[in-house]
Amino acid sequence: MYSFTCDYNEGAHPAIIRRLAETNLDQEPGYGEDDFCASAAARIRDAAGCPGADVFFLTGGTQTNYTVIDGMLRQHEGVIAAQTGHIAVHEAGAVEFSGHKVLTLPQHEGKIDASELRSYLKTFYQDDSHTHMVYPGMVYISFPTEYGTIYSRAELQAIKDVCMDFNLSLFVDGARLGYGLASPAADIDMKDLARLCDVFYIGGTKVGALCGEAVVFPRGNAPEHFFTIMKQHGALLAKGRLLGVQFDTLFTDGLYEKISAHAIEMAMRLKEVFVSKGIPFYIDSPTNQQFPILSAGQIDSLLGPIGFEIWERRPDGSAVTRFATSWATPPEAIDALKEALGSAESK
Amino acid sequence: MYSFTCDYNEGAHPAIIRRLAETNLDQEPGYGEDDFCASAAARIRDAAGCPGADVFFLTGGTQTNYTVIDGMLRQHEGVIAAQTGHIAVHEAGAVEFSGHKVLTLPQHEGKIDASELRSYLKTFYQDDSHTHMVYPGMVYISFPTEYGTIYSRAELQAIKDVCMDFNLSLFVDGARLGYGLASPAADIDMKDLARLCDVFYIGGTKVGALCGEAVVFPRGNAPEHFFTIMKQHGALLAKGRLLGVQFDTLFTDGLYEKISAHAIEMAMRLKEVFVSKGIPFYIDSPTNQQFPILSAGQIDSLLGPIGFEIWERRPDGSAVTRFATSWATPPEAIDALKEALGSAESK
Amino acid sequence: MYSFTCDYNEGAHPAIIRRLAETNLDQEPGYGEDDFCASAAARIRDAAGCPGADVFFLTGGTQTNYTVIDGMLRQHEGVIAAQTGHIAVHEAGAVEFSGHKVLTLPQHEGKIDASELRSYLKTFYQDDSHTHMVYPGMVYISFPTEYGTIYSRAELQAIKDVCMDFNLSLFVDGARLGYGLASPAADIDMKDLARLCDVFYIGGTKVGALCGEAVVFPRGNAPEHFFTIMKQHGALLAKGRLLGVQFDTLFTDGLYEKISAHAIEMAMRLKEVFVSKGIPFYIDSPTNQQFPILSAGQIDSLLGPIGFEIWERRPDGSAVTRFATSWATPPEAIDALKEALGSAESK
Amino acid sequence: MYSFTCDYNEGAHPAIIRRLAETNLDQEPGYGEDDFCASAAARIRDAAGCPGADVFFLTGGTQTNYTVIDGMLRQHEGVIAAQTGHIAVHEAGAVEFSGHKVLTLPQHEGKIDASELRSYLKTFYQDDSHTHMVYPGMVYISFPTEYGTIYSRAELQAIKDVCMDFNLSLFVDGARLGYGLASPAADIDMKDLARLCDVFYIGGTKVGALCGEAVVFPRGNAPEHFFTIMKQHGALLAKGRLLGVQFDTLFTDGLYEKISAHAIEMAMRLKEVFVSKGIPFYIDSPTNQQFPILSAGQIDSLLGPIGFEIWERRPDGSAVTRFATSWATPPEAIDALKEALGSAESK
After folding, report:
1. How far apart are CA B58 and CA C186, in angstroms?
2. Which residues are registered as beta bridge partners of C139?
3. Is the Cβ pair C99, A97 closer than 8 Å?
4. Do C90 and A129 touch (CB under 8 A)?
5. What is the pTM of this model?
6. CB distance A131–D229 less than 8 Å?
7. Contacts of A158 (CB under 8 A, 6+ apart)
8. Does an H or E element contain A18, and which?
């Protein structure tokens, strides 16, 4: 049985486990002041083409989102997100817990639209009562989005332009960043991303690590005392080495890119399996999450050999489903899926 | 060179690294719903003698403290701690960030005193203006304390009695719990602790793990929806397996106790080295942190072969210092310390 | 010139000013423990038909909303409101500042729909990932709404039923309560309201007082220590007498009802003026706020003698406007409006 | 019977009541945009000698304190106060509710000491672990203090110097500002105060108003969007006119100074009564709060004709008491006190 339910079913890339074992008894200072973190940060600055970047390592996505957002906003400001944005839906109100409103815009396949953003901001500032409202202080987007889609360079530039016109910072949640950049549909690389936003993070948890997200402020523009703000938000890991070793390994010899490319290759094969069976998709995703709409019979056939997530069950028994590949997905799992689906057909 | 600066200089106990490697590609669900967490929780319930306990795994100490405290208090309540308590000093105001005041009591070698606690509470409720003040809702103690000292059974019972009289919950920060329970001075075990408090945590980060703290609500008395509260506080790890594997390993065949006992044995040898040189202590600690007061010459001799922390430099060049042993401290490090100190003498 | 821009343009009902003057030098204790507050609370319990009610006096609407909401919710809970609800739009994120998300439902002329509420709640609890989401803990409605509309008894009962099925409390923002209950369209009175919700407040600021809102927990169901929670939220007035005197006056000899009825009478006359001119309305409001859609010419004619609020300017120069009457609106102001509109016609 | 229990037992100065009555039906915009607030702000700028000041009107002391503090601090910063400071003790944790720690220094007759402040700050920044601690961002002092004492010009200058050296803002809680400045012991006036601090407020509630505190940022240095921050904190009064009229009246023809001087004259007479009876004081207060230590017999004799507050009852039945005069204290009340005490003697 192989499960495609999510992209964090396995542990870490074996190279990380090996490196953890090798360095295990080296003595290092805590709180991210170890040599591994320093090396990892240097490699990330290099990969992102921003030699002056501030780089911090946190443990998980929700933690990273709310620490960055609260760290960058003033208290009367909120953060703009798609109505399907992770911070708007699936983070248990962490942003609100830290005192800020999530201001939602309509989503289009998980993305916000620059012209709708501009229109919202114009309307906001034209409204005489806007001083009684939450000020927009930041735009949050995810890359890829919760629906697996990605922004094009032109779309990002358009959003960035609006942000500059209205003095907003732009934050890119890259929990699955590798899978977005490795997509054949991507027309940007990490250096472009670093140029186009004010802060982004490189997801480790879903891309080869046991845990960990690397926050990058590309122009050395971290809020002053961000280290202390991390501590205050419960986001400072005592043994920062655990994060340093992992990101140092991921950014050595292009491992992060390689394993991301593998996940995408698996996703495209998986997509092809569904396409070849004439199965429709809820959304046309170019990244590691795929959303086929399966019939009741197809679902039945898969259950057992193949794990996946039911997103939305429909009255006729069919369902929107999610299949996620990852750095760990073996080619054999795609074959197994194909076979299981084939048997569905012949029933 | 060997560093005694803190008890989180190394990675994890090798058995943990091995187990992480062995289980690395097993597919498991996220968010602590994996088999390892289930097994670890069962072993912890057993070790703590509380079969009905709720057990949760979080990543670090500050995160655990403020999530538990905010989860258990109502919003007008504060938490009582020693003025030297970790939450009162070294957590960057995480408790206040979550909206609660830390109400401080005098410390006596890092401990609070039950009669002073009672007196504070009596005075509070007798004060006509107490409805304008922060209500005490919880008592926080650390075991061992920040000074390495531990509460006796009688002291804990006395504090518990006061808590019951004034309807306060009792929370024990066990970031170094193993080292406290393994101390020759300890007259309680984990089962006693579980009986005497409302919630405690078993520190992993400082006792053999890469990261992780296991929160135990001994009588199944976790606040409702504590899982969601963890998520909201950025304290829910996606790959909960990382914590599950570690605690499952630590609580198999008494590993947690064994490695804690090793650290204490090393601490007692280290203490003996200082005693044998006639070196005084700032505090008489029975656990893995020792606080010798070294002369300027002694400090000079150690620098190089031996790392340690300067706590408080005095005008004459002497200093209160901290030496911490851990599960990882090799006996040779004690010998090296002894030798270095010997050379100090002969200068 | 008379301004209909809002219902808080004037000071207080003259009876209140007189009473403040008469009692001015009486010595009274602070913080709502004065005789006026006690008397006002008794009169309110009587008017609301709930002899066991807890009654508290706060200063303003936003303050009241966020103090009540934060006081009643647990930290992982949010409050459901119409997307046009005051707390969702015009309170500068006060609810989020206190740590809670405002969960929005579609609005229908400013109201939420009980079946949509039920559907939202069913979907929420059916979603496997709901433990990663903000739990709905309360429903907030305004009576009248921000669009001047009111809920019928049947609508309220239906919402209440859903709340009981899903264990939510129901909070009614009555900033303009008097104007809602005095409406010819209302089929409930204050006693009904008290039966149908868990907490409501009686707006003073917009209904005859200089400031002040009276919060009523009809069944003595105030959160424990709500007094201290008020203090913590900056919502406890030192000279509570200022609020006590005002509400005591408003609830003596039915003054609150009488002045509310006057405002509604003025509103109906004002509505009739627009209707008689064939002017359409943005929404059919049965309370003191009216929303005529005026042409550019009509707007021009009014400017000068008549003040009102432009809500939404349209490309052709017409606009949705808001006219608010109040306890203080003189009949002559309606005549002046009629005359000014008449002159518009003849142009 | 006359009560000296506090300085907010009565309503407002009669001139305020008159002015409220006279202006009652004038139509004015809300939220502090009325003419009265504008006029009051202009008069306050004049009285404080700071023509560029930003002036805001809030309703009460706790509300003002936590809104100003939260508005000026960054999230990792705390506010330094005397351990007896109002924000540290009697505001139900409002500052912590807004996310900030109150960092306490020892009090000396209610005051902090500039050299202790400097020493604390030096120690803080020398501590290697200070990045794990709450950063001091502001100094809060009350003038007069909770013990009725006042800072001299030299003391304020010394504190200001430390603040400038360590980049802290200085906030003066002037809930009883008039009574401090009117004291014969005061060697500063409001213009001096404005020069010496970054923000202060002029207490209305305790000095002649029904409610209201005027916050002054002397150099136009209000945090950007402070209006919205007030709204977010529930501190924006809809009918700002209520505050505008009051402060406009208080700052017309020196009324604020005159009524403050009256309270001080009454306090000095009251003090003389106790002195003449040989009664000792807990503290030598030069302002409107006096703290005589009364014997059990003296206490008994006063009960009935004279109200006062028992601060601290002693085993022998004697007590530290508080007597507060105010703008409203009639000379006859002092006579009545004298007489009652006289009868005590003769018993």
Report:
1. 53
2. C80, C170
3. yes
4. yes
5. 0.97
6. no
7. A114, A115
8. helix A14-22
Q: What's chain C's average pLDDT?
A: 97
User: What integer pLDDT is reported at residue A345 of this predicted model?
Assistant: 55
- Nearest chain D Cα to A69, which residue? D75
Q: Which residue has the tokens 């192989």?
A: A2
ipTM of the complex: 0.97
Is the preceding omega at residue A144 within 30 degrees of 0, hence cis? yes
Cβ burial A260-277 (10 Å sphere, 16+ → b, else e):
bbbbbbbbbbbbebbeee
The reply to whether residue C92 touches residue A102, judged by beta carbons under 8 angstroms, is: no
Residues of chain B with C-beta less than 8 angstroms from the C-beta of A176 = none
Nearest chain C residue to B74 by CA distance is: C74
Chain C residue numbers with beta carbons less than 8 Å from the beta carbon of D239 are 8, 11, 205, 210-211
Mean pLDDT of chain B: 97
Nearest-CA distance D287 → chain A (Å): 37
- Rounded CA separation A177/A204 (Å): 9
Under DSSP, the state recorded for C128 is: G
Mean pLDDT of residues grouped by 10 in chain B (347 residues)?
Answer: 95 98 97 98 98 98 98 97 98 98 98 98 95 98 98 98 98 98 98 98 98 98 98 98 98 98 98 97 97 96 93 94 98 96 65
Give the pLDDT confidence of C211-253 residue by residue, as tens digits: 999 999 999 999 999 999 999 999 999 999 999 999 999 999 9
Name the band, by pLDDT with cuts 50, 70 and 90, for residue D344.
low
Chain C residues in contact with D88 by the CB 8 A cut-off are none
C229/B75 CB distance under 8 A: yes
The count of CB pairs under 8 A between chains A and D is 44
Structural domains of chain D, with CATH: 2-6+256-346 (3.90.1150.10), 14-254 (3.40.640.10)
CB contact under 8 A, D25 and C11: yes
Chain A residues inside the 8 Å CB shell of D224: 74
Q: Please name the residue of chain C whose CA is at the shortest distance from the CA of residue A75.
A: C97
> Phi first, then psi: what are they for B333, rounded to 5°?
-65, -35
Helices in C23-145 by DSSP H: which ranges? 35-47, 61-72, 86-89, 94-97, 114-126
Q: What is the pLDDT of residues A271-298, one digit of tens each?
A: 999 999 999 999 999 999 999 999 999 9
